[in-house]
Amino acid sequence: MDRNLILLPVLFQVALTLLLFIRLGAVKSRAVRLGEVDERRRALHKDAWPDYVLKVANNIDNQFETPVLFYVLSFMAWANDGVDWLLLSLCWAFVGTRLVHAYIHVGANLVARRRKVFTGGVLILVLFTALNLRPFLAL
After folding, report:
1. pTM for the full model?
2. How far apart are the C-alpha atoms of 119 and 111, rounded to whole Å?
3. Residue ranges of domains in the chain, CATH in brackets
């Protein structure tokens, strides 16, 4: 299998993060235009922004939590030539959980549902980690 295929879900995860930054710019501009921001506090205090801005900002923070592990594990698999259909499927499944998590978070923000999706993504990372150990166990 072509190990470079693992870079596609990595690029999708990066694209999701960048799209969220674009969305954040849009919702911040809207909040400023509508006068919904405490101008004196906005540079240093998140609570200066309305909730609909905070949802997007908080989700961007989430994109630098478990996805960091995803990036490391993906590049480990790529570097060790350990990419197979199972790993690639896990990568796409993880990115799918991140898309659903972001959709819930910046939308209705149903915490119980969001937590289930987040937990699913973490479990995928646990399996991804175990599978990434295969080359080291063969030593």
Report:
1. 0.93
2. 12
3. 3-137 (1.20.120)
